[in-house]
Design goal:
Blueprint lengths: L2 E4 L2 E4 L8 H8 L13 H30 L21 H31 L8 E7 L2 E6 L8 E4 L1 E5 L4 E7 L4 E4 L7 E3 L4 E6 L5 E7 L11 E7 L1 H12 L8 H13 L27 E2 L4 E2 L2 H9 L1 H4 L12 H13 L2
Parallel strand pairs: 3-7, 6-12
Antiparallel strand pairs: 1-2, 3-4, 4-5, 7-10, 8-9, 8-11, 11-12, 13-14
The structure holds copper (II) ion.
């Protein structure tokens, strides 16, 4: 099992996704954009490698020419013959320039054509897709809404996008506060999320696994801690996940958790939603199934009871400046609230 370092801590790579061997490679290099997974990424990755290769060749050729010119012996030397300095039609300098410009033009034009074909190839998925996800970027977390034909198919979660493997998924990027950029390197190029606009993109994962994403447009203090995860699993597992997420929070909870729920309503419900309860705040992430997520605070902390407690006790230590205030909670209250959140699977 590979372990991967990611912002603020370590996270064991997927162990709950069977057959994830191939994609675990993406986890060991979480932001790797030189390997693609899926039809949205393949053409882009080919272009990336192509342009990289061309750039390397250009650097080598130019360096070689420069070194050749620097070390070329000239009878008499430059200093003694200033008249030879300018490039003249008579000398042999001009063909070098024409050939150089000619080659560059052809190569650059070829790259433009390649880029344009790549862009149009990844514009739209080949097959149509039933699944559309709306991603709303906030300072500094991602709101993820699964759309559906009827209202009872719609639900909201945060910082984790689950998709069925091998199927294209449309993503509508809704801009709220400031400009962000949605980027899951192994699956797609970057698409900006702009206030007042809805941009469209799509993703597809050819292998099951966990793909790390990141806000790619500086958006303020905690921009670096605005990560997300795309979790691709086989269709039946995805459907099971979706069913579980659609359900409201369970009522059947132990005594301390029930006390915690009361405290949660008093202290947290103005900012957080828990479906099936009076909590309907929209300032922070929907917590209806927070216990089912791998991380909290947009990839900042692994989702464990200890980290959850520490986060609620003082969210500002882990992500200074983030929009969740430090609430002065008594020890017992804090423990009860965590017990409650742990029931939200
Ligand atoms: Cu950002």
């Amino acid at each position: 099992m590979m372990r991967s370092a990611f912002l603020g801590g370590t996270l064991a790579a997927v162990d709950s996704v069977p057959g994830a061997a191939a994609a675990e490679a993406t986890q060991s290099l979480p932001m790797n954009f030189l390997t693609g997974y899926g039809d949205r990424a393949f053409p882009v990755v080919n272009l990336t490698w192509g342009v990289l290769a061309i750039s390397v060749i250009v650097v080598i050729v130019i360096t070689a020419l420069l070194l050749g010119a620097l070390f070329r012996r000239r009878p008499g030397g430059w200093a003694h013959d200033p008249a030879r300095l300018p490039v003249s039609r008579e000398g042999n300098g001009l063909p070098w320039i024409s050939i150089g410009v000619g080659i560059s033009t052809v190569v650059l034009f070829g790259t433009v054509v390649w880029t344009m074909t790549t862009l149009s190839a990844v514009m739209e998925p080949d097959e149509d897709t039933a699944l559309t996800i709306e991603v709303d970027a906030h300072q500094w977390w991602w709101e993820v809404r699964y759309l559906g034909d009827s209202p009872d198919e719609i639900f909201t979660t945060a910082n984790e996008i689950h998709i069925p493997v091998g199927r294209p998924v449309r993503v509508r990027l809704v801009g709220g506060d400031v400009i962000h950029s949605f980027w899951v390197p192994a699956l797609s190029g970057k698409t900006d999320v702009i206030p007042g606009r809805t941009n469209r993109t799509w993703i597809e994962a050819s292998e099951p696994g966990v793909y790390r994403g990141q806000c790619a447009e500086y958006c303020g203090l905690q921009h670096a801690k605005m990560g997300l995860f795309v979790i691709a699993s086989p269709e039946d597992e995805f459907e099971a996940w979706r069913e579980a997420q659609l359900a409201p929070a369970s009522d059947d909870i132990a005594e301390d958790a029930a006390r915690g729920r009361e405290d949660f309503m008093r202290n947290c419900s103005a900012c957080h939603t828990v479906r099936g309860t009076p909590a309907g705040g929209a300032v922070g992430p929907d917590l209806t199934h927070v216990a089912s997520r791998r991380t909290i605070a947009a990839g900042t902390l692994e989702n464990t009871p200890a980290n959850l407690t520490a986060w609620i006790e003082d969210a500002q230590t882990f992500k200074p400046g983030n929009r969740m205030p430090t609430l002065d909670l008594e020890g017992q209250t804090l423990m009860d609230i965590v017990a409650y959140l742990e029931t939200l699977e």
